[in-house]
Amino acid sequence: MKIIENEEQILSFLNAIKNKPIEEDETLFFKKELVDVVFKPRSKRKMNAFCKQMGMDVFEAILEDLELPFTIKTIKESPPVYMVKKEE
Amino acid sequence: MEVFVGQRISDIITLEEIERDWKMGMKILVRSQTGTGKTYWAQNTIYEYCKKNNYKCLLFSNRVVLKEQNEKSLEGKDDVFEMVNYQNISEKIYGGIPLSDVYNGYDVILMDEVHFFLEDAPFNRKTDLLLRSLKFIYPNKLIILLTATPQMLFTYKSKYDKVYNFPDDYSYINKVLFYKKDEAIERLVSNLPDGEKAIYFARSAEDAYELSKKFVGKSSFVCSPEKKAYGKLSDKNTIKQIVKDTKFSTTLLCSTKLLDTGINIEDENLKTIIIESSDPINIIQSVGRKRVKNENDKLDIYIKNVHKGDMLQRISECSKNLWWARELRELGKEEFQFRHRKSNLPEIIDNDFTVNVAIEVYYKYMLEFYEHLNKSDEKFRQYFYSHFQYIPEEEEFAEHEIQKPDIIRVLEENKNIKFFKDDQKIIAKKFFGVLLSSSVANDRNMGFNVISKIIDNNNIPFEIKSIKETKGQNRDKKYWMFIRKQEEVKNENN
């Protein structure tokens, strides 16, 4: 089991957002919120750049590497719509 | 006349319109950005108009390269068109040929990129010799002025007989970012995805050449062949290629003002234009070099930021120059010569002790521009966001965007090293330190998946591999290794 800092906040965010569609224009907001709770970056500008440059697969991998029971599913392609799902 | 976005010049200024509304003796100003079919209109409508009336047209260009591109596109139409450079004609007038003689034999004078008179004035003292054409009346000639940036022309002469204003369409601009330090340019160029190209418009030939040297093998340098010293280093083949194919073959083209107006680059791989200038007209013109081929053809623009200190310096420079012009006018020639007999005179004062009007108008316009922007640091950036119809999500500088070279540096420093469990946490922390400056320890938990995805997402020429050790005290334990792609790494396991 990994020791995750700030775990409560991360889980609270993921539980709040789960099962709700994340439309294309909301993805940047989602990415930033996730990065903010997971990494607490000192530089908001670096965070913005990171979120803008990285595809959703990077954020899926973050959840995977933290061994959190959540996944990000693509529920619609072009324009993409995502959804955070809790693993049973 | 009301003109809408997307309408081309030939849709609006038809032969019928010309024949109905234009009269000899008029001065017509057409303001339209690149890509609105200016050349097509000249090739067809103006050609037809001249042909029908048995007119001859003198077509001015402001750059050698533009003249050559115009010559190529108007091939076979030399029964109507004669192409000249403003510079050559200025030299003739300077040599004593009267302006009226220059225009003699022509009925239509078509001045392409006419902002040249004022925009080039600070480094070409002879532009004012032709500038006077705009105020003189030529009852038997039609003068057509074409430009995307007429701002300074209005400072010189506020009224024209007819003005066509074609609205700008900058929907092809993907983003407008500003950079603070010159090092950002290098990082930006290193960061270009494979296959993409960039143009760097430098403030000086030296800056352009220096950057091209840093990317030997994938860059080319061009400047005016007449430029002292650097002119000899200018890549003639690249210029030829631009004239012939409206393309360049290197990844990075480092240019001076030689290519800043009129010429077209039609290349979907040109995705980035970097501009080191504080002159709004120069910036707008530089951006206009890309000719968009379809709606997916987008462009990123990077402009050197001008902060308040720079602005004050520019205001001071403009004010000083304008002071000299006022001083000469107020004192008169003789008193001025006496009072300033030991002073170093600026170029705004010609050697016959008259004011160079083109330089004066240039500084007047620039002073007005900088004084307007001087009210706040953000104004310079906001001016261009607004001009290029770009709404930034939040104001960011290019320095904050460019991280790829940093990631490559970390990977390069740690390539071909075996990272077992504890070391993996250290390298993950280092890797994410570059990307995010995390303030919690979760970056140490980031593993193989995330790092691998980030490398893929950024098209970085490395891969991370997870390999099982086959011998020694770490036998059967897995380690990570960063391997540069296409690099043969002889691994004990392979």
- CATH top level of the largest domain in chain B is Alpha Beta
Low-confidence parts of chain B, pLDDT < 50 over ≥5 residues? Answer: 488-494
CATH topology of the largest domain in chain B: Rossmann fold
Beta-strand content bin of chain A: 5-15%
Distance between the termini of chain A: 18 Å
Number of helices of chain A: 4
Strand portion of chain B, in percent? 15-25%
Overview of the molecule:
- The complex is a heterodimer of chains A (88) and B (494).
- Chain A has 88 residues and is α+β, with helices and mostly antiparallel strands.
- Chain A has one domain (7-86).
- In chain A, 50% of the residues lie in helices and 15% in strands.
- Chain A has a two-stranded antiparallel sheet.
- The longest helix of chain A is centred in the middle third of the chain and has 13 residues, at 27-39.
- The model of chain A has no long low-confidence stretch (mean pLDDT 90).
- In chain B, strand 2, helix 4 and strand 3 (81-85) form a beta-alpha-beta unit.
- Chain B is elongated and about 95 Å long.
- Chain B folds into four domains: 9-165, P-loop containing nucleotide triphosphate hydrolases (Rossmann fold, 3-Layer(aba) Sandwich); 173-305, Rossmann fold; 308-373; 404-484.
- Chain B contains 21 helices and 14 strands.
- In chain B, the strands form three sheets. In chain B, strands 3-2-4-5-1-6 form a six-stranded parallel β-sheet. Chain B has a six-stranded parallel β-sheet with strand order 7-12-11-8-10-9, with helices on both faces. In chain B, strands 13-14 form a two-stranded antiparallel ribbon.
- The relative contact order of chain B is 0.10.
- Chain B is an alpha/beta fold.
- Chain A binds chain B through residues 2, 4-6, 28, 35, 38-43, 45-50, 52-55, 57-58, 60-62, 64-66, and chain B through 393-394, 396-397, 400-401, 403, 432, 435-443, 445-450, 452-454, 456-458.
